[in-house]
Write a structure and sequence with these properties.
The protein is an all-beta fold. It contains no helices and 17 strands. The strands form three sheets. Strands 1-4-7-10-13-16 form a six-stranded parallel β-sheet, with no helix packed on it. Strands 2-5-8-11-14-17 form a six-stranded parallel β-sheet, with no helix packed on it. Strands 3-6-9-12-15 form a five-stranded parallel β-sheet, with no helix packed on it.
Length: about 110
């Protein structure tokens, strides 16, 4: 696991990987309390200046810089999130989704 400068992982988070799995957290990002991040044997990349809200469940994904993931969201495996997006609280990004830059997604499944 790699955590960039000025980043934080808050209390009661589970940040886990098996074997060769990797979790990379960029600079100035924060992972808020009760969040679950499980890389299994894959790689999860969280960009710079990303806020991941409380109680988020994060699968195998790639998150660009300057993003906000609201409280209680679920991001399935195989999701790519471009820089500069917002996913509203309690939304669900389904497997295979590509969240485009500078947009707000909400709902289950998450849509513009």
């Amino acid at each position: 696991m790699s955590i960039g400068d000025r980043s934080s992982v808050w209390f009661s988070c589970l940040v886990s990987s098996e074997g060769n799995g990797k979790i990379i957290i960029g600079e100035g990002s924060n992972i808020q309390d009760n969040t679950l991040i499980d890389a299994k044997r894959e790689t999860i990349i969280i960009g710079n200046r990303v806020t991941i809200g409380h109680n988020v469940r994060l699968g195998i994904c790639k998150i660009g810089d300057d993003c906000l993931l609201g409280m209680g969201c679920v991001v399935d495996d195989d999701v790519e999130i471009e820089p500069g997006w917002v996913i509203a609280a309690k939304s669900h990004a389904k497997s295979g989704s590509r969240i485009r830059s500078n947009e707000i997604y909400a709902g289950s499944p998450a849509k513009i």
